[in-house]
Amino acid sequence: MVSAQQIQATMARYVELVDAGDIDGIVALYSEDAVVEDPVGKPPVQGLVAIERFYREGLGASKVSATLTGPVRATLNGCGAMPFRVDMEWAGQPCSLHVIDVMEFDADGKIRSMKAYWSEINLTAQSHA
């Protein structure tokens, strides 16, 4: 079984990879038959080929930055959740999207399920300083 510490490290690494725009690194965190639901309510994306395409078409199409906004919470049975913020342009405006990701891990520490909880209601315009 994957440890709570491994879950915390992998989820924090996920945010770092999103911030860096490292699609290959992100995809490498997933198991072969993983499922991504981003956001929850959209049809699930299943398998590494589809997951890679999802990230290349989404994250790869725009410049974003990502920051953890609280600690990664991890269970003792292979699950974790974390709050983070994605800064990007939305409809030409600099915005921040506040997200909670919930992930389930396999015994090898690979992500087998990722659910992202967000909608446009979680989008805030960045103030111009």
UniProtKB/TrEMBL annotation:
Superkingdom per UniProt: Bacteria
Organism whose genome encodes this protein: Pseudomonas fluorescens
One family name in Pfam for this protein: SnoaL_2
GO molecular function: isomerase activity
Gene3D superfamilies associated with the record: 3.10.450.50
InterPro entries in alphabetical order: Ketosteroid_isomerase, NTF2-like_dom_sf, SnoaL-like
Active site residues per record: Y14 (proton donor), D38 (proton acceptor)
Domain SnoaL-like: 12-113
Name by which UniProt lists this protein: Steroid delta-isomerase
Annotated positions binding substrate: D101
Keyword Isomerase on entry: yes
Alphabetized UniProt keyword annotations: Isomerase
